[in-house]
């Protein structure tokens, strides 16, 4: 059971209701994570805007979902792991590709470099070296893509923490975390 109420478009604060309707329209349902965050209109607005901005960014959706499952597994966030595995498959990734990404692996060198970077950011709390950025450039990422990749990681940290801290019930098909 969630540690905070899972509100809906009728019980949420007034300033959250329109955004919850938008989310419902986008997903065909209102995922529990958004229902938890909707307790704060400012947090919901921030989260939804970030999803929208990054969804129209230059990085492919499939890469964003692969980064999300790697970060989710690293943070032991069952909710995000389940959600982004489903979204990754919807974006065209195979089950095997999503499982590999969950473990921080990919056959494609550019995807592998992005996953390495994302997991280093999480593990080392953003403490990067020049070589970490150089590795992304060598893999073919430009500066804008590198910043956008970091933004994906930051958004996933926010969503992971929401779901883990508030014990939000998973409402996507469950995916097992890797063994610690």
UniProtKB/TrEMBL annotation:
UniProt cross-references to Pfam families, sorted A to Z: CMD (PF02627)
Name of the protein this chain belongs to: Carboxymuconolactone decarboxylase-like domain-containing protein
GO molecular function: peroxiredoxin activity
Species lineage: Bacteria, Pseudomonadati, Pseudomonadota, Betaproteobacteria, Burkholderiales
InterPro entries reported in the protein's UniProt record: AhpD-like, AhpD_core, CMD-like, Uncharacterised_peroxidase-rel
Domain Carboxymuconolactone decarboxylase-like: 49-122
Species of origin: Achromobacter deleyi
């Amino acid at each position: 059971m969630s540690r905070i109420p899972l509100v809906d478009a009728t019980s949420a604060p007034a300033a959250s209701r329109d955004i919850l309707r938008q989310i419902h329209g986008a997903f065909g349902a209102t995922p529990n994570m958004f229902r938890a965050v909707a307790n704060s209109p400012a947090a919901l607005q921030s989260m939804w805007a970030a999803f929208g901005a990054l969804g129209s960014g230059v990085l492919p959706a499939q890469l964003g979902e692969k980064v999300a499952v790697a970060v989710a597994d690293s943070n032991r966030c069952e909710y995000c792991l389940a959600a982004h595995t489903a979204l990754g498959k919807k974006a065209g990734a195979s089950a095997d590709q999503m499982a590999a990404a969950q473990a921080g692996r990919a056959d494609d060198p550019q995807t592998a470099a992005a996953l390495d970077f994302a997991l280093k950011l999480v593990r080392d709390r953003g403490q990067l070296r020049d070589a970490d950025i150089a590795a992304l450039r060598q893999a073919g990422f430009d500066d804008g893509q590198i910043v956008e990749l970091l933004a994906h990681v930051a958004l996933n940290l926010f969503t992971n923490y929401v779901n883990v801290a508030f014990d939000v019930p998973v409402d996507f098909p469950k995916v097992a975390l890797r063994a610690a």
